[in-house]
From TrEMBL:
All copies of domain DUF7507, residue ranges: 471-549
Residues making up the signal peptide according to the UniProt record: none
Domain named Surface adhesin CshA non-repetitive: residues: 29-212
Annotated DUF7927 domain residues: 352-448
Superkingdom in the source lineage: Bacteria
Record-given protein name: Uncharacterized protein
Annotated transmembrane regions: none
Length: 559
């Protein structure tokens, strides 16, 4: 029988422990009970009937309950009798950490140990099978005897001492003197819910109590990886999913580059260790950062949320008998580019001066651009180089060393891999050689495919443009009774000026530059209050503003 996962008493607060050495049979299977809590922890039981209900935690999965009764001559609970000729502990079962021996402290009498109502609680349904073990913990000499009782058959563990009555049955006695060869002390087991030992004689005797626990029921784990909707971030992506209880109990499966799902075989084990579920990239071109990961699990058919669901690995507790299935869903992300553009000037510069444009694109998506799924940038220079001479251009990713850029008179292009969050910057410089009445417009496009030709429109968020204009505004001022008869010039004789007071002023304002103007305000240093019909003018558009003053206000010079 495979022992359950018990530890020495005191380690993990378990109440039984195994022998670590010795010649005793089934040494690795018998877990010796720690009886130290009997009688309130007082190790000595005096000459009276003492009864305690006891519950011992034997392992993570098993708990033993019983009523322990001690009657007769005084005795105490110890780890070992320490008698040099004892079989238990000194010879057969050594290194036991628990106090599993009831040892007489007075000679010439009888001490009785009895365990009633023995029950074992464990995982799963039903009552787990177990065997109680009793052992002569000292030696049975001359006028001594030890009698074992149970409500089921006793069987010897290992060799049978020759000083015991046979067949053993449910009741038998071993009497001194002890054998000089072969088994020297009785170690017996019984599938019983009641055991009793009576120690009688002129000397001191002891009895140890143990249990053979049932094997933990086997548990199983299984792992599955699924690409959501069968979609992959990159065409050849492949992942491996695994489930492991230990390095020797690991199962895995790989999706390959075409299958939607991979499922491992079922891994069955008696281990009580937790299971580790892991998903990894199965080839060099696959990056898990291109996916949103979500683990879901069931235990014995019931769903439960695992801790760390969004990570590449999770750890799940597994109890004996559990059937645990965990699935990781990989939802492919999508790369996406944002783009912006600036210029180092706000308007068309003087002839033979330079302008530098800077285009910045960032991967703001949920997946990377990679070798078989590149990012593309294209800059339309046609409305810049028609009035300017191209000088130079550079491109860099995340501020690193310049990378390859393709350039021509009217176009700059770049393509390449771009991780999530990374930035590519194109900077180019031209020398203006026009006559100030032009518009210099640079258009930059960010796409997932190479552009065959530039679109007619620049639409955000896939395009960013910068237009530089030459701003110029002219104002002509006239005075007169009405706009039709108003004149431009200086009044030599204000008193003779068309005989009218007050005097009306008319201001003809024209946008003579290459770009639209806004927030236009017209003022007169003669204090004339001026009203204009609008505040914006398109290129070559004009408007007439008006004002009124008395004859003390002479025509200012045209401005």
């Amino acid at each position: 029988m495979v022992p359950a996962a018990a530890l020495p008493a005191g380690a993990g607060n378990y109440d039984c422990s195994y022998a670590t050495s010795g010649t005793g049979a089934d040494r690795s299977s018998i877990c010796w009970l720690n009886l130290a809590s009997f009688n309130g922890g007082n190790p000595t039981v005096t000459d009276r009937w003492t009864s305690n209900k006891m519950t011992l935690k034997l392992s993570d999965n098993y708990t033993l309950s019983f009523t322990m009764n001690v009657n007769g001559k005084s005795a105490r609970v110890v780890k070992s009798s320490q008698y040099w000729d004892a079989s238990f502990d000194v010879q057969s079962y050594k290194g036991i950490a628990s106090s599993s021996v009831l040892y007489q402290t007075a000679q010439n009498g009888m001490t009785q140990l009895q365990l009633d109502g023995i029950t074992l609680a464990g995982p799963g349904n039903g009552v787990p099978a177990f065997s109680m073990v009793m052992a002569d913990a000292e030696s049975t000499d001359g006028a001594e005897s030890i009698t074992f009782n149970a409500n089921a058959q006793w069987t010897a563990v290992g060799l049978r001492p020759s000083n015991c009555t046979y067949p053993l049955g449910s009741n038998f006695t071993c009497s001194g003197p002890k054998p000089t060869s072969g088994a020297r002390a009785a170690v017996v087991r019984s599938d019983s819910t009641f055991v009793q030992v009576q120690m009688t004689g002129s000397g001191l005797q002891g009895v140890a109590v143990g249990i053979v626990l049932p094997a933990d029921p086997a548990s199983s784990v299984q792992a599955t990886a699924t690409f959501a909707g069968g979609a992959r971030a990159l065409a050849n992506d492949s992942v491996t999913v695994s489930a492991a209880r230990s390095t020797s109990e690991r199962v895995s499966a790989t999706t390959g580059s075409t299958s939607k799902t991979a499922t491992t075989v079922v891994s069955t084990s008696n281990s009580t260790a937790p299971a580790t579920f892991v998903v990894t990239a199965a080839n060099g071109s696959t990056s898990l950062s291109n996916y949103a990961l979500a683990w879901t699990c069931t235990r014995n058919g019931a769903s439960f949320p695992p801790s760390g669901s969004g990570s590449a690995s999770i750890v799940v507790g597994v109890a004996p008998g559990d059937k645990v299935l965990c699935t990781v869903l990989l939802t492919a992300g999508t790369p996406a580019l944002s783009i912006a553009q600036t210029a180092d000037r706000k308007e068309v510069p003087a002839t033979n001066s330079t302008v530098t444009y800077t285009v910045t694109a960032q991967n703001v998506g949920t997946a990377e651009y990679a070798a078989n799924k590149l990012a593309y940038l294209a800059v339309d220079l046609s409305s810049v180089t028609d009035e300017a001479s191209f000088m130079r251009a550079t491109v860099a990713v995340d501020g690193g060393a310049p990378v390859s850029l393709t350039s021509s008179f009217s176009k700059l292009t770049w393509s390449g891999a771009l991780p999530k969050g990374s930035t590519v910057v194109i900077s180019y410089t031209v020398t203006y050689n026009g006559t100030k009445d032009e518009v210099l417009t640079s258009r930059a496009f960010a796409t997932n495919t190479e552009l065959a030709k530039f679109p007619a429109e620049c639409v955000s968020p896939s395009c960013a443009s910068v237009a530089l204009y030459h701003p110029e505004l002219t104002v002509v001022k006239k005075a007169g009774a009405d706009e039709g008869t108003a004149k431009v010039g200086t009044v030599a004789d204000p008193a003779s000026f068309i005989g009218a007071q007050p005097l009306n002023f008319f201001y003809i304002v024209e946008n003579t530059g290459s770009g639209a103007l806004s927030n236009i305000v017209v003022t007169d240093d003669k204090g004339v209050k001026i009203t204009c019909p609008q505040t914006t003018l398109a290129p070559k558009e004009s408007m007439t503003c008006t004002g009124t003053s008395d004859m003390s206000a002479f025509f200012p010079r045209t401005s």
